[in-house]
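User: Please fill in residues for this 78-position structure.
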């Protein structure tokens, strides 16, 4: 079994922790990219699909417009 000096271990972990906090603070306010950025054409297609789905839901009564920027879904009325 390997023996560890507690004080050395804590000091090592404190330095690593500080590096993580500094790195996370550097990204504050900026989204962290976890993957490849979307193609601009794909963004447009996804937006149009979502817009059409929303308009169909409004037309069918699945979503009800209550006011500016206020909506109610059909299942919440019941």
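Assistant: Residues filled in for all 78 positions:
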């Amino acid at each position: 079994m390997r023996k560890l000096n507690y004080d050395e271990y804590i000091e090592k972990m404190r330095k690593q922790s500080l590096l993580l906090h500094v790195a996370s603070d550097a990204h504050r306010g900026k989204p962290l990219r976890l993957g490849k950025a979307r193609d601009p054409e794909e963004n447009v297609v996804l937006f149009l699909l979502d817009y059409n789905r929303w308009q169909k839901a409004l037309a069918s009564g699945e979503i009800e417009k209550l006011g500016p920027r206020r909506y109610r879904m059909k299942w919440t009325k019941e």
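For context: The two ends are 64 Å apart (CA to CA).
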